[in-house]
Design brief:
Chain lengths: 519, 100
């Protein structure tokens, strides 16, 4: 098979260990310990304007059946023509998970009869998927139950059509069919059974979602069904052969995936320990009760009679197309995180928090660039200050104001001005927050606010010295004690001076001058 | 290659086509006639020939990602889409309830 390997597209600088190693997650059964084995099949809706094989719109939430073409409705004689953008997005996604890209792939028909699929078959890729083996790194996060970095294998990504939507509760005897979603492009991303705990399954889905959103190949909107996971779970005695797995379909959040693993593994353990056998079957998760139940589908329901789609020639990709795909990739989460730690000197925690979501790092990088520009300083010198501001201070102020804040006023320019004043020692951290509050409420200029509202700290040595002299004169006894060796009193003098200055003294200058005066 | 009665009955059931015993009586020989006809292809020696999907060296054409670029393959034609529906209500197809 013709294939290109993009293994070296990203050099991960982080410590990693190979997939397949066991986490410490165990289920304590009545007869001993059980290990859980998890694989995920994620369906991700490809971001495109038009559908996979027709030019009708993919937009969410339209009036029923208004985005259906004669192709989507499977009218006789209509021929599918693939949308280049859907192919491109699948390839870019494959590259983002270091996967083998197959220059030759093909579409097959998966035959089944159901009201949401007028063709009577789904066009999918069974025999020759567009993307082959890849991998994804989930990062250590002690608090989340992930003691070490771990690489999860990805078996393949193939492109296929979504089906329509059925509504069963609108009419006493009929189901209503809306074909708007019918024919929208999906990527099915199939992992290896490399996960061994609910935390790993959750982290895998969250990381995959993050990568898809970086790449822009899927909006990751799980509420609207843009991403949904089929969760394969089995249990076994530690180190023994794989057990029989069940597949819980269409789980639509990270939390639910973790919950499914937990309850389904426990159900299997209880079943086996009671002398029963796990049946390979499809199950459904009910979020209300927090349990899974069998779909009791008919035995031959999975006889899909796949065969190559005679309406579609093979997809053959040339080097120029692949180069374009590769060149269009942004800096990806792992590379960005490594850069934040190594080049910007950020803490592991800050780097992880900032790189998780596209919006978060977007705001951070814009603000960092703006602050570095107006201060004329190197980004690495300001990164930690800007990171703390972006991650905790700014969101904190925004949250505390609630409806009073106008998010439109939270521009990078306004925030950079505040950070600049703080960096120059003109304002304290507390004043920075106060100024930002006024900015968010009114949209006034940050520097003007600092002046007009008296929100500046005094760095003028003359003014500070005058106050220090007053404090020392009023506390002669303590000055004597300090000079006599009672070092702890230094904090008292700082406090008194700051109080005399209504909290507006620059602490660094106050400290420095106090040290000189107390000698 | 040939198929037996049970296979034909199963294929019909997977396609949700109701077939009586009498229908099967005619359908099984018809299936086998078709299969025998196609079987002639296996008489051709294709050793050394790469599997192909077409004999003409054709390349797959890809479409630009544009909505309703071609009126024949675009949406916004609900009336046409629903024209042949046995039941159409509130813009939906109505089908017999398909939930257990």
């Amino acid at each position: 098979m013709l294939a290109l390997h993009w293994k070296n597209a990203l050099a991960l600088q982080l410590n990693r260990r190979s997939g397949g190693e066991m986490s410490n997650y165990r289920i304590q059964g009545a007869t001993g310990e059980w290990e859980v084995v998890i694989g995920l099949e994620v369906h991700a809706q490809v971001t495109s304007e038009a559908k996979l094989f027709s030019s009708s719109s993919t937009q969410f939430g339209a009036e029923p059946n208004t985005q259906v073409s004669l192709i989507d409705a499977a009218m006789p004689g209509m021929l599918p023509v693939p949308n280049q953008e859907c192919i491109r997005q699948a390839v870019r996604t494959g590259m983002a998970i270091n996967a083998q890209i197959n220059k030759y792939s093909r579409f097959d028909r998966k035959n089944y009869f159901y009201a949401d699929l007028p063709q009577g078959y789904q066009i999918s890729q069974l025999y020759h998927p567009i993307v082959g083996e890849g991998e994804l790194l989930i990062e250590a996060d002690e608090k989340a139950g992930l003691p070490e970095d771990k690489v999860i294998g990805i078996e393949r990504i193939h492109v296929e059509q979504d089906a329509g939507k059925l509504m069963h509760d609108q009419h006493p005897t009929m189901s209503y069919v809306d074909l708007n979603r019918c024919g929208v492009a999906l990527m099915e991303i199939v992992s290896r059974p490399d996960m061994t705990s609910p935390a790993e399954a959750g982290a895998y889905l969250a990381k995959l979602r993050s990568i898809l959103r970086y790449v822009g190949s899927c909006d990751g909107n799980m509420d609207q069904g843009s991403m949904r996971a089929d969760v394969n779970v089995s249990v076994r005695r530690p180190g023994e052969e794989l057990g029989t797995r069940t597949e819980t379909k269409n789980v639509n959040s990270v939390r639910f995936v973790m919950q499914v693993v937990e309850v389904e593994a426990q159900r299997q353990v209880d079943l086996i320990e009671d002398g029963g056998t796990v049946v390979q079957e499809t199950r459904l998760f009910d979020p209300t009760s927090g349990t899974t139940r069998s779909m009791r589908s008919k035995e031959d329901a999975h006889d899909y009679r796949y065969f190559p789609d005679p309406d579609l020639l093979p997809v053959e990709l040339d080097d120029a197309f692949l180069e374009d795909c590769k060149a269009s990739l942004p800096e990806l989460p792992d590379a960005k995180r490594a850069r934040y730690i190594e080049k910007l000197g950020l803490s592991v925690y800050n780097a992880r928090e900032l790189t998780a979501e596209v919006e978060t790092f977007g705001r951070f990088e814009t603000l960092l660039a703006e602050t570095a520009k107006i201060l004329g300083k190197d980004e690495s010198a300001l990164a930690t200050q800007v990171a703390n501001w972006s991650l905790s201070i700014a969101p904190g102020v925004l949250k505390s104001l609630g409806d009073e804040a106008n998010p439109a006023y939270s521009t990078a320019e306004a925030q950079a001005k505040i950070l600049k004043m703080q960096d120059a020692g003109e304002i304290s951290g507390g004043q920075a927050k106060e100024i930002y509050e006024i900015v968010l409420k009114t949209g006034r200029d940050a520097e003007e606010i600092a002046e007009a509202e008296g929100l500046k700290q005094v760095s003028d040595t003359g003014a500070i010295e005058a106050k220090i002299d007053e404090v020392l004169a009023a506390n002669q006894d303590k000055v004597e004690q300090y000079r006599g060796g009672k070092d702890k009193l230094f904090g008292f003098f700082v406090g008194q001076t700051m109080k005399a200055m209504q909290g507006k003294g620059n602490p660094a200058v106050v400290n420095e001058l106090l040290k000189q005066k107390l000698g | 290659m040939s198929v037996d009665r049970a296979t034909v009955a199963k294929i019909a059931s997977l396609a949700r086509i109701n077939m009586s015993e009498a229908d099967l009586d005619t359908m099984v020989p018809e299936f086998n006639t078709i299969l025998n006809f196609v079987d002639q292809l296996s008489e051709v020696d294709v050793s050394g020939v790469e599997p192909m999907t077409a004999v003409i060296p054709n390349k797959l054409r890809l479409r630009a990602d544009a909505v309703n670029a071609d009126p024949l393959t675009g949406g916004g034609i609900r009336d046409k889409i629903l024209a042949n529906a046995p039941v159409a209500e509130h813009g939906f197809f109505g089908v017999p309830k398909v939930i257990e």
